[in-house]
Amino acid sequence: MLRDELAKFYEKAKGCKCRVTTKAGNSYEGTLLGCQVLTNNNLKLALIQIDVNGLIKEFYCTVIEKIEKL
Predict the structure, then answer these.
(1) What residues pair up with 48 in beta bridges, in sequence order?
(2) Do 40 and 20 meet the contact criterion of CB atoms below 8 Å apart?
(3) CA separation, residue 8 to residues 28, 31, 53 (Å)
(4) Residues 6+ apart with CB under 8 A from 55
(5) Would you state the torsion angle of the CA atoms of residues 30, 35, 40, 45, taken in this order, to the nearest 10 degrees?
(6) Is residue 1 pLDDT above 60, yes or no?
(7) Which domain of life is it from (predicted)?
(8) Distance between alpha carbon 21 and the CA centroid of its chain, in Å?
(9) All domains of the chain, ordered by start, with CATH?
(10) Whole-model pTM?
């Protein structure tokens, strides 16, 4: 997902139940708290913050395959 796509989705989905799937196949389901794209040299990373049953998970990934609003 590109930075603009991610920003538009986040505006619609923040605080909502979502499923985030990375290109590596990892999937996280919970309430979307934060979402941003970070650039370090030429590497782009997405930082996702998601509340999974009261436990806040924060993870980085290089490619987000899809984010679905549940």
Answers:
(1) 35, 59
(2) no
(3) 20, 17, 25
(4) none
(5) 40
(6) no
(7) Bacteria
(8) 8
(9) 3-69 (2.30.30.720)
(10) 0.70
